[in-house]
Amino acid sequence: xxxxxxxxxxxxxxRRRTNVWGALLDRQDILVAAxxxxxxxxxxxxxxxxxxxxxxxxxxxxxxxxxxxTLRGLGSHLPAPLRTMALALDDERCRQxxxxxxxxxxxxxxxxxxxxxxxxxxxxxxxxxxxxxxxEANAVRWAACLREDLQxxxxxxxxxxxxxxxxxxxxxxxxxAALHLRGDSRGHWADSPQDWQFSPVPERALAxxxxxxxxxxxxxxxxxxxxxxxxxxx
Amino acid sequence: xxxxxxxxxxxxxxxPVWGTLRWRSLLLAGLLGALLGGFWAAGQHWRLAQxxxxxxxxQMQVQDRLRQQSxxxxxxxxxxxxxxxxxxxQDWRQQQAQGLRLHAALDEQSHALGLRVMxxxxxxxxxxxxxxxxxxQDVPALLSALSAAGSPLWTVHSLASPAAPGQDxxxxxxxxxxxxxxxxxxxxxxxxxKAGP
Lengths: 234, 197
Known about the structure:
Number of domains of chain A: 2
CATH topology of the domain at 103-163 and 172-195 in chain B: Gyrase A, domain 2
CATH architecture of the domain at 103-163 and 172-195 in chain B: 2-Layer Sandwich
CATH class of the largest domain in chain A: Alpha Beta
Oligomer: heterodimer
Structural class of chain B: alpha+beta
Low-confidence stretches of chain A: none
Shape of chain A: globular
Radius of gyration of chain A: 18 Å
Distance between the termini of chain B: 149 Å
Number of strands of chain B: 5
CATH architecture of the largest domain in chain A: 2-Layer Sandwich
Mean pLDDT of chain A: 88
Number of strands of chain A: 9
CATH class of the domain at 103-163 and 172-195 in chain B: Alpha Beta
Strand order of the largest sheet of chain B: 3-4-2-1-5
Largest sheet of chain A: 6 strands, mixed
Shape of chain B: rod-shaped
Order of helices and strands of chain A: HEEEHEEHEEHEHHEHH
Number of helices of chain A: 8
């Protein structure tokens, strides 16, 4: 129903968040960054932490317990409305692709095609993937992860008192952060992430960034965590 | 970045067609439910009104029945009271007639036999008559005369000679104490009283 979506968007605008956390979930650690919206519209990094899981924690349930405890500890000093976190997934947990189409499919057919494509990429049933897509000229760019993982992360976040409104690919979050990061030199970027500030509008174009080099460097993970939070703030 | 951001929480979600169908189904079910509920409520309301009218009618019938029972009970009590009054009056009349006859007989025997009535007692169950006769052989005649007057059967309770040693009496005679028992019918409403000579 379009009016429900409209009302939801209106409510979302009224409840615009000023503090958002972003996280990059890895197997043995979680990288989190908290961004706060400034009066001038820029976002500033308030917290940047890497929480390392204890060594030898191989059991999945124990690792989940550790993750819940970590999230609960991160948000223990925050009021409930400020406990909002966006999660970015690396390539191991999120698969992406391009689906070519002739432009003759309607939205429903396109969604079904993408779901089938994502399920085939994961090798699971169509109802077992969570996905999103946007159409380009003659192709559809999609990203998908396992729905079981999504429900698990949402369950962890909910049990720790966090809202989880966004789960996105890490590339998307890193691109957002890199385009909005203030400072015109790579040397400036190399400063501590706690000193980063992000402008409300892009500072540069996609072509201005050497993405392979950036992804291979140490700034990638901080950019992902900050970009995830920035996606909810902007 | 011009492309919209991907959010893996967005899909899968219910399609608009399914949603429309669902909403239409829900709306239809709601309307149907409201319609059925309205019919049911109207039926219950009508049924309730009918039951209330029936209850009021029954209540009126109960009140009428109670009034009739009360009137019948009052009538029965009145009839019983009238019967009791009639019985009592009849007893009174009978005893009054017997009393009159007895007085007449006593008056007659006082002239015929010289009877003097000393004491006459009626306690409702028996009559006691104490008198004096000049001649003791007139006692059976007195008994038969009193019995013939319609009073209960008289018997002699005691006879005594009034002449005592040292007592000066010019007339001989006998003191007689007579007794008569009221019959069962007559004793239902006894007359209690005393009368002297």
